Amino acid sequence: MAKNVTEEPDHTIVARSMPEKPRVVFPLGRGNRGKTLLTRWMIERAFVAGRDVGIADADRTNSSLSSYFKNVLSPQSADDASVMEWFEDILDKHITDQRSLVIDFGGGDLTVKKASLELELVDMLEREGIDLVAAHLIGPDPDDLAYLATVEENELFAPTRTLLIFNEYCIPKAMPRDEAFIRTVRNHKIIEKTLDRGARLVIMPALPVVHELDRRRIGFFEALAEKSDSGHTPLSRFTRQRVMLWLRDMESAFAEVNHWLP
Q1: CA distance linking residue 57 with residue 221, whole number of Å
Q2: Which residues is 164 bridged to in the sheet?
Q3: Any residues with CB less than 8 A from the CB of 234 and at least 6 apart, and which?
Q4: HSE of 254 in the Cβ direction (CA atoms, 13 Å)?
Q5: What is the spatial distance between Cα 153 and Cα 32, in angstroms, rounded to a whole number?
Q6: Taking the CA atoms of the chain, what radius of gyration do you get in angstroms?
Q7: Using one digit for the tens of pLDDT, what is the confidence trace for 201-251?
Q8: Three-state secondary-structure class, residue 145
Q9: DSSP annotation of 66
Q10: Of 52, 119, 125, 218, most Cβ neighbours within 10 A?
Q11: 48-104 pLDDT per residue, tens
């Protein structure tokens, strides 16, 4: 579980509503599009609000969630067969326990696509009483839409609860922020098709100090405390303020879909 934060969090930076049914959330997309950052935020906000959620890290090249949380589940081997067996085992356990889960796969990982082809994964999980959430992380690059297009084709992996998340952190400095996604991916036919079937679009705000938190392995809510419990010099008040504002912006950005989160 995440490190404890002793202070009561501001109600504007963490939602406390309890999901009606367990959630299994799949952050998806290319590498360096913010999947792990989103995963950490979802898990931390759930823990701070007193909700239980399992954590699975299937990133075969950059596994980092265990630096922030305890009891992170990871495959013992990186070969495809072992990862698929591990994937089925943890899903089976969380279905049995009726417990929410977030699974962080590496960029370009095909496990979810393969399982969907072989098992009709969406229908299977929904029959078992699990709400499935696909969260596609997208930057202002048309190539970011390739994975979305492959899983949306013939509704291979197209759960009702699908998020299209435009990550502002991926916008190049030379590109105007208010035009970045409109000029590149917003009007692409696969975006329109996915929205037309009921997916929701979210603009995910950038966290300017994310590298400082990553370097120290400090959680978002931990950063709000006066002192970190990791033995480092406390973060500056300006860094803490930026984290607090980002948490508020995240809650605002996801306000209309926070009932889809664990």
Answers
A1: 21
A2: 136, 201
A3: 226, 227, 228
A4: 26
A5: 24
A6: 18
A7: 999 999 999 999 988 889 999 998 755 455 567 888 899 999 999 999 999
A8: helix
A9: G
A10: 218
A11: 999 999 999 988 777 788 889 999 998 888 788 989 999 999 999 999 999 999 999
